[in-house]
Amino acid sequence: MSDLTPEPGSRTAGTTVVRQKTKVSNKGQILAWASWDWGSAAFNAVMTTFVFTVYLTSTEAFGGEDHVSQVLGAGLAIAGVLVALMAPITGQRSDTGGRRKLWLGVNSALVVVLTALCFFVFPQAEFLILAVVLLAAANVFMEFAGVNYNAMLVQISTPGTIGKISGFGWSMGYFGGIIALATVLFGFVTPGFFGVATEEALNIRVVALFSAAWFAVFALPVLFAVPEIKSVREERISFAASYRLLFRRIKAIFKTSPHTIYFLLASAIFRDGLAAVFTFGGVIAAGTFGFALQDVIIFAIAGNVIAALGSLAGGVLDDRIGPKRVIIMSLLGLLISGTAIFILGAGNYGIFGFTWTGVVTFWVFGLMLCLFVGPAQASSRAYLARLAPDGEAGELFGLYATTGRAVSFLAPALFALFINVFGSQRYGILGIMVVLLAGLLVLLPVKPPAKVSPAVEPVS
Predict the structure, then answer these.
(1) Reported confidence tier of residue 118, pLDDT bands at 50, 70, 90
(2) CB 97 within 8 A of CB 391
(3) Residue 189 covered by a domain
């Protein structure tokens, strides 16, 4: 298939048509790139969301749910600060040093090692700090790896396929999470058909080894298939000099393409709302709608399937109508679905001859939420990739990570605030909807990325 690659310095957000030159690409690079997304899902879904952190918070030996949650929250908060401070620099230095693939491999390997070490977290109070340090450090290196991974999108895509490829990557992440999660739940946890003993929580601790191996295997293809970028600077500069350069570039971006900065701010807000949909979805299902743990797991698997399909469909739409329209439609879909859960979930309503119970409402509109989350995430990545100047994608995705971390308190804070004010967990849904609405409103005036046409001279 054909590929289009921008000539250096040729991309400008929102105002120009860009001249392109053609080169040959191959589908193997795309599959290898998406394989990393598939593999990383073992850490994201198994270690940090559904299994290992639940093991920590639900095991009394670690000190009880409240104590563990506080320690874990503090550890992850420190990790978030480190990511916010360091992500743009790691992206910038890998861009200029021609080491994008190298640092993707190094950071991925560190995540694998730290994940495997979680095997040694025995169900005893003295191992809690070890667990939190390992998870927090793994989160930091996963974010650093993600900066370089996302920046690779501009290497393997064309202006006409960037949305579809981004959506394909996100869908692979969801599908990988489904398979990994199902293997863990039914192979090690319930009923444990691999026959691993439960003494000293061995069947849970071995999940860390499984997750590490899963990520290691599926992270390898991209390191062989996608070539390293060329270095644009021979001499090395200090970290202090890197920060000075970063601030000069942010100032230059704001001067020449302010809507890039506006998009970073808008996406930071609505991405926090998107993350909250999955973070608090299981909590709301259990607390507000009475789902048992098994029901929550079944819903999580179904929701990931729907989100994956939504990512694929949204990626195709992205290339046809543009990422901004896909994000807007997705956010509107999320707002409608979330509002329906809040209103109809309050009791039994007869509409068009059908009784909407709370459980039915959550299944129907909860899956609709999942449907719209995937396209919004995938198109957000594609949006920024289209804005990235040649040779600066890593730095821009570093800023993407930083701005996301900077406002990551919004959705959790409003979720808790609305529950505290109205005295019911159901009102926490409104807190998440407020964040999504705010992100939508900030996004609306932002100019979309420029359309790209091959073999055309840049025009104002």
Answers:
(1) very high
(2) no
(3) yes
